[in-house]
Amino acid sequence: MDNTAQIDYWNGPAGEKWVRDADRLDRMLGPFAEAIIETVKLSAGQRVTDIGCGAGALSLGIEAGTVNVDVTGVDVSEPLVALARRRAEAAGARAKFVVADASSWVPEAPADAVVSRFGVMFFAEPVAAFANIRAGTKPGGQLSFACWRPLADNPWALTPLMTALPLLKEPPAPPEPGAPGPFAFGEEARIREILGASGWSEITIKAWDGDMRLPGADPAETAGFLMEIGPLARLIKEQALDEAPIRAALQAEVRKHAGTDGRTRMKAAAWIVGARA
Ligand SMILES: C[S@@+](CC[C@H](N)C(=O)[O-])C[C@H]1O[C@@H](n2cnc3c(N)ncnc32)[C@H](O)[C@@H]1O
Question: pTM of the entire structure?
Answer without folding.
Answer: 0.96
